[in-house]
Structure formats: structure tokens, C-alpha cells
Design goal:
By secondary structure, this protein is an alpha/beta fold. The chain has 14 helices and twelve strands. It folds into two domains: 277 residues, Rossmann fold; 63 residues, Ubiquitin-like (UB roll), CATH 3.10.20. Helix 4 packs antiparallel against helix 5.
């Protein structure tokens, strides 16, 4: 399952975010390395289409798509050289597909900052430097592995070596591999190595009520300008994570009763989950068995009905005959499978059909 690693310095709200977004209890404390082994949990993806399909079908069970999150221990300056269990924590980042980096803006004096002073650009640079150094070390190990093949003039090894040299120069210029332009063949050459700086990145600014809207806007603009080569403005989100943790434990009615809310200029957890879903390059397809169950499934964009069938059960792949497909819009408009069939909105597809976002799929096996 594709996943997002929650990364950052110690004491900046990573475990608070993890607990709020997954509703899974974890240890939260005001000292470094509260987390050693990663906490793992899933967050549901809010999708109004799922609710509408389930309402038409009168489904008893409604199961949303989910995104897996890893709460990874705080990195410190020198992590790539092993400081603060750095090598162990960097290996945990290597296991995830994308990174959500939490940056501290909140000013709570009772929670010490490991660098003493709050400076978001400095913190971003510390994490970036450690990931770059770890990737440079990986490139050195790759070279040693293919050194004998290079001496034998192996064509693939020579191509890989040429690419490694270019990537090394790029990293030494303090740039992420994700910003290095590669063709499909080059991407395939390094696919197995799972470089840290090749992973998609979301920045989560953890603020509190002391941060004004204008101050937040200024910080976001400064970050967007500094990292314009690496990150899109929509990948810089701002949340009050302590408040989100409180809200996550309450119903909407309870939050209203206690007068708990979030300012309109802040993001919420659903914004983060949805953006994570997008940077993982996922789409959603639906299955429904009528009154029993309606379910949303996350699927990597570009995969086929046969590959999607494997998510449900391996028997669906092995016994695949065909798939009946209706778009969610047509189904919600016409309100029945039979009506979709009658009006020609139902398609019958084979195993090579590329699933589209919002397809409702019924497998014939």
C-alpha cells in the first residue's frame, strides 16, 4: 500500500498530526525521540461520491478509501552521520512513498525547540540537508556495487554510472532528485534505489492562535519563493495541529457546543489527506453490492480493471471475465444500475481497460 511518512525535527507536532489524522493513540511528549519505531495508521479519504452512491444503494456498510501514514521519529542535524539514531530514522523514510514534513510555527514556550529559536526556513534546510546527504551516501554505495561492471564496459552499468554522476552533481548543488529532469529509461535505471529526495513532498506548517493571517501569508510566500524549484504553493498547508487533535475527538455538534472551530484561512485534516492522495497519484473507483456494502478503493492512476481486481481479491484476477462499468455521475443522476444499462451508460470492458477516477465497477467472474 502506498504511504506517507510524517517527518520533521523533534517536538514540532508530528505525533499530534498522526494521532489527529488516524485517530490512533500514540505517545506525545515535550522531549526528543518520544517516537523510536514508526507508528502506522490509516486515514479515511472523505468523498461525497461514496456517500451518494451508498445512499442510492441503501448500503448498510460504507467503507471509504484510506491513506496509510507513518509517524517517523524526529530527525536532527547530523542524522545522515548517525546522530540521534539518524540512520535508523532515515531508513524508515525510505520505506514510504511520499513525505509530509511538519514545520513548527507555534510559539508555546513550554515546548522547547531543539534549535532554540523558531525559524521555518532553517528547519526545512536541516531536514533537506540530511536527506540529500543520505542520498549522496547511497550513490556512493551504488557506484561500488557496479564498479566491476563498469570496468567490463557493461552498457547498462555505464549508463547508470553516467546518470549517477549527474545526480551527484545535482545533489551537491543542494537540489532534490525530484527536481532533476529524467526520461523514462533513466527513471527505470534508478527505480530500485528509492532515493529519499525523489519522494513527493508536502509541507505542513504547525501554527497556533498567536500567528496572524498576515504573518502566516508572509511565511508561506517566503517558503514558496525559496522552494519554487521544488514545491508547488498548494503543497504548503497550514494547520493548528493541537486544535485539530481536539476537533478530531469530537462530533460536529460537540465542537459547536464548545465553540471550537478553525479560522477560514487554515487548512484542515481533510485537505491534507486529499492532497496526500493526489501526490501519491491515486484515483478512486467504487464497488457496490447494493444493501450490503458500498466501498471506495484507492488505485494508482493508469492501472487496469484486471490490476484493480487484485485489490479486492486475487480470485477476482484469476477468474476475471469482464467488468461492467458506470461513471459515478451517470449512476447518481439515473439512480439505478438497470437504468444506466437501459440508457447505454453502462460499458462492458475487458482486462486492459484503464480505470478512471469515479468509475463504479462490477466484476463478472
Amino acid at each position: 500500500m502506498l504511504s506517507i511518512g510524517i517527518v520533521g525535527l523533534p517536538n514540532i507536532g508530528k505525533s499530534t498530526l498522526f494521532q489527529a489524522i488516524t485517530k490512533k493513540q500514540v505517545s506525545i511528549a515535550n522531549f526528543p525521540f518520544t517516537t523510536i519505531d514508526p507508528n502506522i495508521g490509516v486515514a479515511p479519504v472523505k468523498d461525497e461520491r461514496l456517500e451518494q452512491i451508498a445512499a442510492i444503494q441503501k448500503s448498510e456498510k460504507v467503507i471509504p478509501a484510506t491513506v496509510k501514514f507513518f509517524d517517523i521519529a524526529g530527525l536532527v542535524k547530523g542524522a545522515a552521520q548517525g546522530l540521534g539514531l539518524g540512520n535508523q530514522f532515515l531508513s524508515h523514510i525510505r520505506e514510504v512513498t511520499a513525505i509530509a514534513e511538519v514545520i513548527r510555527l507555534f510559539k508555546n514556550a513550554n515546548v522547547p525547540h531543539i534549535e532554540e529559536k523558531i525559524d521555518p526556513l532553517r528547519d526545512i534546510e536541516i531536514i533537506s540537508t540530511e536527506l540529500i546527504l543520505a542520498d549522496l551516501e547511497s550513490l556512493g554505495r551504488i557506484f561500488k556495487k557496479i564498479e566491476n561492471d563498469i570496468k567490463r564496459h557493461d552498457k547498462e552499468a555505464l549508463k547508470k554510472f553516467e546518470l549517477i554522476q549527474k545526480l551527484e552533481k545535482h545533489l551537491q548543488e543542494e537540489k532534490w532528485i525530484s527536481t532533476f529532469s529524467m526520461n523514462e529509461k533513466e527513471k527505470e535505471l534508478i527505480k530500485e534505489y528509492n532515493f529519499l529526495t525523489k519522494k513527493p513532498l508536502i509541507l505542513v506548517l504547525n501554527i497556533d492562535s498567536s500567528i496572524s493571517e498576515e504573518e502566516l501569508k508572509s511565511v508561506k510566500n517566503e517558503i514558496a519563493k525559496t522552494l519554487s524549484h521544488q514545491i508547488k504553493p498548494q503543497d504548503i498547508l497550514a494547520l493548528d495541529l493541537a486544535n485539530e487533535l481536539n476537533l478530531a475527538a469530537l462530533t460536529e455538534e460537540e465542537a459547536l457546543e464548545l465553540n471550537l472551530s478553525r479560522p477560514s484561512y487554515l487548512n484542515d485534516l481533510d485537505d491534507l489527506i486529499k492532497r496526500g492522495y493526489q501526490i501519491l497519484d491515486l484515483i478512486t473507483f467504487f464497488t457496490t453490492t447494493g444493501p450490503e456494502e458500498t466501498r471506495a478503493w484507492p488505485l494508482k492512476k493508469g492501472l487496469t480493471t484486471w490490476e484493480a481486481a487484485g485489490l479486492i481479491h486475487k480470485d477476482f484476477q484469476e477468474k476475471f471475465i469482464k467488468a461492467e462499468i458506470v461513471s459515478w455521475r451517470d449512476f447518481i443522476e439515473l439512480k439505478s444500475w438497470a437504468k444506466c444499462r437501459e440508457l447505454g451508460k453502462l460499458k462492458i470492458e475487458g482486462r486492459d481497460y484503464v480505470v478512471c477516477d469515479g468509475d463504479i465497477v462490477y466484476y463478472k467472474i
